[in-house]
Write a structure and sequence with these properties.
Shape: globular
Structural class: mainly beta
Number of strands: 31
Oligomer: single chain
Strand order of the largest sheet: 1-2-3-31-30-29
Number of helices: 0
Radius of gyration: 19 Å
Largest sheet: 6 strands, antiparallel
Length: 372
Amino acid sequence: MKLTLLALLATISGGQAILTVLVVGTPVGQAGQAGLPVFHSVLPKAKVPFVAADGSGGFYVSHVADGALKVAHVRDGKWSPARTITSDAKLLVNSADHPSIAVDGKRLLASWSTRNAHGTIIHLAESKDGGATWSKARTPHPQMVSAFGFASLLPKEAVFLDGRGLPGGMEGAGDMQLRTADALLDPRVCDCCQTAAVMTSAGAVVAYRDRSDKEIRDISIVRKTAKGWTAPKTLHADGWQINGCPVNGPQLDARGKRVVAAWFTAAQNAPRVQVVFSGDAGATFSAPLRVSERTTGRVDVAWIDDRHAVVTYLSEGALHARRVSRDGTMGAPVKIAAAAGGFPRLAVSKQNVGVVWSADDGVHFQLLEGVK
């Protein structure tokens, strides 16, 4: 991607310096066409970012800085002051099991984990004023020393990996479960792969890396219908047999009854990122599209409109994005960053695609406009 520097700005958000660069580049999936504005900011010394759309063209970006979990809002090239969600001294800073946020207007829900002896605790807190103030945190699982984490957020609940059945609370000593606060969704799942959860117009859909008795670790889904949670169903039979957790979970996005899922597999010693589409709230899915074959995964995916989605993934250490369509066509891959750490995340707010990732100098946020 060719970039032309237009402006370099330094601002302060909640006492934190933010370096902002406005450049001209090529939008996702339109390589070779005229460049459109790209907004790029760096939050120095920040870690483990997550991004969520505000629904009106802006984004909320959570991150850890100065020992605290914070959230800031960015829109039209302007950052709000960063607000503190928690400054717990036991806050877990882990690039795989990172904090996350969900947004519904001015209502925000945040999740994070803290250390608890050799285990971890999940915390949930709510803001009703766009992140300015936060409720007292609650925990959706029993108070015990074991492994709990990798939460995904739905409007009124969280889905997470639950180690209440692990002997001695030791990860790897028994079967990790997938649960909500009120329901067991799967009694045996991969120990440390990210989960994903979205709300369709017909109910919730959850994706996760399953684990069979023969150590097949393919992606499964469960759905919440009027009759309750469905039994687990394999998303696609990749047949990836691996004697250990690959730390590489699936991602989902929903738009009405339309669902898109992306995931990494290395079945048959062929690493690849795959994408499938559903038009019936996750009851059935299309055959998978191969988005990348030279990849280490760490995917995310989001709808652009009713027919197109954008997928991000790592390939040879670089962060790439690619537009995919329900009809099976794909745009050209676009390199967003030559090097990206952690698990990059993206969100679409109106026609804006916001991407966050970690690097040695802090958290990067990049906005690519006009991706149609």
